[in-house]
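pipeline/complex-builder :: batch 7 item 3
reading input block
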Amino acid sequence: MNESTMAVRRAIDELDLDGIGMLVGACLEEGLTPEEIIQEGISKGLEIVGRKFEDGEYFLADLIMAGEVVKEAMPILKARMNPGDSSGKGTVILATVAGDIHEIGKNIVGMILSANGFEVIDLGVDVPAIRIMDAARTTGARFIGLSALLTTMVDSIREVVDAAGAAGLRDQVKIVIGGACTSQDLCTEMGADAYGETAIDALRIFNGYAAGA
Amino acid sequence: MHPIERVLNTLQGKPTDRVPTFCAMVEDRTFNEVLGKPLLPQERLMTNPAARYLFDRWGPVLTKTAFRIELDRALEKRIRAQVELGFDSVWAILDETFTVVDHATMVRFSGSIFNLQPDGYGNMTYMYRGPGIKTREDFENWPYWPDADDLAHSTYRFFRKMMSKYGHRACLFGQGPAYGIHESLLWAVGFEKMPVWIRREKDLVKRYVDRCEEICLKTNMALLDAGVPVVIQTDDFAFKSGPLMNPRLIDEIFGPSYRRIIKAVHDRGAYYVLHSCGDNTLLFDTFISWGVDGLHAYENTSNVDIFREKKLHGDQVTIIGGVGVDYLLTDRSKDEEVVSEVKRLLTGLGPGGRFIIAPVHSLSTIPAHKLRVMVDAVARFGAYPVALS
């Protein structure tokens, strides 16, 4: 294990927002490629943060902070990457369902997925099913993440599932739900593919889909 | 036993004749069902082309001359409806925190922006849109901060009137125009940025917290001057699965202010209740160390276990809440389901006292009828000693 990538890993684990840029720069100066830094430093660092979150040592704010630390690092790395290079985990479309404008949870999931190599297309809040399907069709995304906080808006989840069926895409896309009013029961009832209680659950689910694809 | 005595005894851990009830506010739809619908529905009043034009052009002026007057009227209706429904204690709030800037946008003086929108029942409601303070410059130049003394004066005037009208019938849990310090900061800078602000803008966070504390202290004192026996404040510290931040950090940043705020209420011989949504399991010890007398809401849709909390903290704090609004207090449930859940809560949480049964929240989807069913069930089955067959 390279000492410099270990330092990047440690910076993410310790949520060192101010030190990460310098550490990533040092890795590049040593001749490490951006891909090596992402794989050995950033992804491994995020794994540790995710474990600490699941163990109750870290909280949601710490997850967000880890995402911010990665955000500081990525522009430096992207500037040195060849166009088209990516870790290739796939594209995830994220949206808060129609009728609901809460987006904190969705944004956290987006941040965590981006930091872990997914291409994230965030359609925002109060998004009608038809728009989600249009985005899936035009981008070829195979993963959709739906967020819902309001109990009164859960039917919007079913509308997305139905729209995927109507568009002939149901077998090609995985629909994952999350948010305050959602549950595994609701996921089953609405015909979605998976339910994630936390952002780390969402990452695990999408990683699983990406690995299995 | 008089409702006020029943509630105050419970907050002190003294014996009462039955488990008291608390109403966590009612929205317009619900109070219209209790008090009768207005001749001109709020939605038509606010969303017609003429009103839109006027609000788009003179929103801030109309806020003071028309909107707040209508809002105060609605706030009184909320209190009256809760009392008429037969609750022992009710949440009374003076929400003079908003300025309407155009027909669809309201700004809260503490730095956040909300959509002004129909609630689906012919009334208007608001929903958080996003942060208003995104940079240090935004913070320094935020134009909506109020004068805390002005807020205290309007709080006193409003609550003196409310106490004379309703204060003898039910125990008023009063909240002035002062939302919780943590959630105000969270809404002002946005949750995604709050951890960064806490790390990088410590001086601004401290100044923000101090400013909110001053507003809380002054409006709380005005509530007590008006004779309100219980101060309630809402500060959502948790999500469905747990605290937003490390409890140690929450205590470090917000604890000193809350300790001072609660001590000031206690020094005047009154009681302090904190409302916090989500699963606060890891925070209850912190809240208790701040000195709270009661805690609301123990949301059934979060991971909090209200029965476990009764065992762990039931002798240190009054547990308030438990009745779900996601299904039970909606049009979808059956009356007997409400009665059955009330019985379950009374059986598990009533013995030993220090429990006030209440809806976990207020929502436009709560029908007045279901609240009546809940209150009736408590009257029938909640007498001490709680013994249900």
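note: The first strand of chain A starts at residue 91 and ends at 96.
queue -> next item
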